[in-house]
Amino acid sequence: MPLERVLPALRHVWGSRFYGAQKRLTGLRLIATDLDWAEGEGAEVRGPGGELLLLLTDRRVALENLDGPGLAAAATRLA
Predict the structure, then answer these.
(1) Cα separation of 37 and 49, whole Å?
(2) What is the C-alpha separation between 79 and 36, in angstroms, rounded?
(3) Edge-to-edge strand order for the sheet containing 43-47?
(4) What secondary structure, in 3-state letters, does 12-75 show?
(5) Sequence-separated (6 or more) residues with CB below 8 Å from residue 73
(6) 3 state SS of 78
(7) Does the structure show a pLDDT above 80 at 79?
(8) 40: confidence class by pLDDT, cuts 50, 70, 90
(9) Are 24 and 77 within 8 A, CB to CB?
(10) Could you tell me how far CA 44 lies from the centroid of its own chain?
(11) Predicted confidence band at 19 (pLDDT cuts at 50, 70, 90)?
């Protein structure tokens, strides 16, 4: 994904109630390793912005490309 498109998408999805990302990932801090983007508080989940976008939109495929102490908790919250 082009990074110039990922950043606005991350901001939109995180701020939108439609996706439910903030509620679903409460207690986790998401940190993009290739962009200047981070949201949330708690155990960290780190990875490329495109993979975090997949996580925010409830896509399990993102888990294999993310890491951090909060990853296990994030995995339990996906559909």
Answers:
(1) 8
(2) 28
(3) 38-40, 28-32, 43-47
(4) HHHHCCCCCHHHHCCCEEEEECCCCCEEECCEEEEECHHHHHHHHCCCHHHHHHCECCCHHHHH
(5) 27, 28, 43
(6) coil
(7) no
(8) very high
(9) yes
(10) 10
(11) very high
Q: Summarize pLDDT for 69-78 with one digit per residue, the tens.
A: 999 999 999 9
From residue 8, alpha-carbon distances to 4, 11, 27, 57, 65 in Å are 7, 5, 23, 14, 21
Q: What pLDDT shows up at residue 39?
A: 98
The residue type found at 51 is: E
Average pLDDT, integer, range 61-67: 97
The token duo for 31 is: 């940190």
Domains defined along the chain, listed by start: 3-73 (3.30.1050)
- Contact at 8 Å (CB) between 14 and 56? yes
